[in-house]
Amino acid sequence: MANLVLKSNTANNTFQVQQKVFKCPFVKNKIQLTITPQKLYSINSKDFNVGILPPLVSKVEFENLGDKIIASIFIKQEIISSKNIILDIPITGKGFLKIDRFNIIEKVKTNGEVLITNLSPYPRSVVDNETKYIIKNNLGKKSLVLSKTFTVTEDFKFTKLPAYNISGNSNQYNVTTKIKKDKNNNVISKTFDFYYTSPNAVAISKDTQISFSVSTNYSSKQTYAEGITKVSKNKIYSIDKGRDLGSQGGTKRMVVKGAPGSTFSFLVSNAAGAMYDRSSGSFSDSGGIITGVIPKAVKGKSFGESVIRINIPRSAAAQTISTQFFKQEDVAVQKAKLAQATTTAEIDKIQGEGKIKKAKSLSLTTPTLTFNITMDSATLASTAVVAAEAKLVSTSSVTLTVDDGSGGDSAATDALFLNKKIYKSDGTLFGTCTSVTNATTLVFGDGISGAIANNDVLYAYPTTYLGPKVIIISRGTTATSQLVFLGEENRKELNIIKPGVHKFSFTVSAAVDNKVVQITRQPLFVMPTAPEDNYVAWDSDATKKILAQQADGTKIPSDWDWSSVESNTSVDMQMKCLGLGKVLSTDAISGVDHYSYAQIQVVGEIRVGNVGEVSSNLSLNLDNFLSVITPS
User: Fold this and answer.
1) Per-residue pLDDT tens digits for 350-385
2) 434-456 residues labelled b (16+ CB within 10 A) or e (exposed)
3) Whole-number Å distance between alpha carbons of 237 and 256
4) Which of 160-169, 402-411, 559-568, 581-590 has the lowest mean pLDDT?
5) Does 344 score more than 50 pLDDT?
6) Coil, helix or strand for 267?
C-alpha cells in the first residue's frame, strides 16, 4: 500500500517543521503541520511564507498556536496512487532570539605602566590578552554591560590618553567617559562606561569586539603641594575584593595595589553582621578593623601589592561576604593640604579624608531588596477595639489589654489584628500586632513606636484580599497566615541580596464573603530613577483604574511602592494576572468587558541586576489593578 508523505526540507536552525505520513488513498482536503521553534527562539506566523507549491497543493496558511505555528496545507483533490507520493512544501520563515545573547571580546594594548580596573555584572573569562564577557540582555532593554578604568600611578603620566574602538553591534552602544585630574590639571584616570540597548528583535546573535589602547611614560615623582618635600601621598590605586566562594567556603584572596608605604584599613563582615577576626580566622563579635601597609614596589613597577587572605567557613547555604575599605592619609600630608586650603569647605573636606566615616563603619549588613504584597485597602478604619490601659514607647515586646470601651470583651480577632500595623485615629503608627492571645490581649512582638493612651481606639487598614492559608514560623512560634509571601514555598519573605532571576506565583481571593475579584487591568512596573519613587496609589473611579490613573488623571506608572530608591539599584519585572476557574461576573467598563473570579493568580518574574548600596522594601499594591466587587 502506498504512502503520502508530507514534509518540508527547509534548512533553518531557528525552527523545525513536522513531517506526517498517511496511507493512500487520501481523501482529506487539509493537513496541518506543526512548526516548533528551537530552544532560545520564538516564531510568529507573520514571518512565514511558502515558495512554489507542488501541483496537488492549492495553498498554505499559517496561524499562531501558543509558541508554535500551525501550517495548514490545502489539498486540491483526492489522492489515489499505488506508489509513494512525497509532497515537499517549501516553507520559509525566520525565528528570533528570546534573549539577546552574545559575547563581548576585549583586547587591551598598553605601552608603559597603567592600572586597569574592570567592572561587569556578566561572567568573564581571560585567555592571554583577550577577555570575553558572556552577555544576556532582555530584548529592548538598556544595560551597563562593561565599565573599564585606566589609572596612572603617581610616578607616571599619560602620553596617549586611553581610547577604544568598537565593532560588531556598534550602533547599539552608548559610551560615556569620565576623567579625573590632579591639581596640575593632568589626567590621572579615565573611565569608559559601555551601555548596550538590545534590539526589539534579534534573528542572529553577533559578537562585539572592543579594543583599547593607552600609553604612559615615567615622570618625576611629585609631592602633593609646592614647597612640601619628603612627604609622600598615601595612595591606593586599586582594590580587588576577590570572588564569592559560595557555600563551599575556602580562602578569599584580596589584592590591594598602591604606592609603597601607603596604609589601608578595611572591615569584612558576613550577612549576619559578624566581623572577621584575623587572629582567630573566623567571623565573631570580637572581629574588627584590619589594617595593612603596601610593601615595596613590584619588580619593574612603581606600585606595590598587598595580598590579604580571609578564611571563609563552609556553610549550608551560599553566603554573602561584605568588604568595606576606608580611605586613609598620612597626617603630614593632611597638614600640607591644610596649609594651602583657602576655604572652609576645603578644610572640612581635607580633615574628613583621613577618618572612618560613621556611615561607612555602620554598613556591616548586606544590602537587601525585600519584596512584599499589600493586601489591605487604602482607607484607615476603626476596629471598634479599645485600649484598656496605657503603654509607653518600647523596643521590647509589648502586651496590651483591650476591651470594647465599656469593660466588656472586645472583638479582637486574628482577622482584624494578626500581622497588621495598628494605628491611632489620626494615622499615628503604634506598631505591628504579632499575636492575638485572646479577645482581650494583643501582643506587639517588636515593641511600639507610638505611645498608647487608655481608651485609645485602635485603627487598621481593612484587609481586602486573602492569600491561601499557610503555616509560617515567626520568632520561633508557628502560626497560620493568609498573607502572601513571595519567598521559599510561599511561606517566607523574598529577600534578594545579589543579582539573579526570581519567579513567583500567588493566588488571592476577596476577604469579604459573597464577593469576587475583578481583573481591572494588568499590573505595571517601571524601574524608578533614584532617589525618586514613581509609585502612585489608585484612589477612586473605576474607569480611571482601567487607564492606570488616579481620579484627577494623574498617571500610575508603577504598582510597586519603594520604601526608598537607592543608587545603583537595578530591577526589572514581568507580571500577569490570570483568572482561576469560572468567570463569575462580566462587567462592561468604558465599553470593555472585565471578568471576575473567585480566585486570581498573579504570576511574574523579578530580575535583579544590582541590589544597590542600601536595603529597600518593595510592596505590590493589589488594589491598584484588582477590584473586589459584588457579582452581577
Assistant:
1) 444 444 333 333 344 578 889 989 888 878 889 889
2) bbbeebbebebbeebebebeeeb
3) 8
4) 402-411
5) no
6) strand
The three-class DSSP label of residue 623 is helix
pTM: 0.43
Q: How many CB atoms lie within 10 A of CB 55?
A: 8
Is the pLDDT higher at 88 or at 410? 88
Question: Could you tell me the three cell numbers for 174?
Answer: 552608548
The owner of cell 509609585 is 535
Asked whether the CA dihedral 341, 344, 346, 349 is positive or negative, the reply is positive
Strands 369-374 and 616-621: parallel
The length of the chain in residues reads: 632
Q: What's the rounded Cα separation, in Å, for the pair 61 and 67?
A: 17
Distance of alpha carbon 218 from alpha carbon 215, whole angstroms: 11
Q: Average model confidence (pLDDT) for the chain? A: 82
Q: What is the model's pLDDT at position 222? A: 39
Residue 473 · residue 465 · CB < 8 Å:
no
End-to-end CA distance of the chain: 61
CB-based burial label for 343 (10 Å; 0-12, 13-18, 19+): exposed
Nearby residues of 5 by Cβ (< 8 Å), 6 or more positions away: 19, 20, 21, 84, 85, 86, 87
Taking the C-alpha atoms of residue 324 and residue 327, their distance in angstroms, rounded to an integer, is: 10
Residue 228 has pLDDT above 50, yes or no: no
Cis check: omega of the bond before 25, within 30 degrees of 0? yes
Burial tier of 565 (Cβ tally within 10 Å: 0-12, 13-18, 19+): buried
d(CA 341, CA 501): 50
What number is the average pLDDT over the span 217-226? 51
d(CA 326, CA 360): 8
Distance CA 308, CA 417 (A): 52
Asked if residue 107 lies in contact with residue 69, where contact means CB atoms within 8 angstroms, the answer is no
How many C-beta atoms surround the C-beta of residue 538 within 10 A? 23
Helices (H), 290-343: 331-340
Determine the 3-state secondary structure of 348 from DSSP.
helix
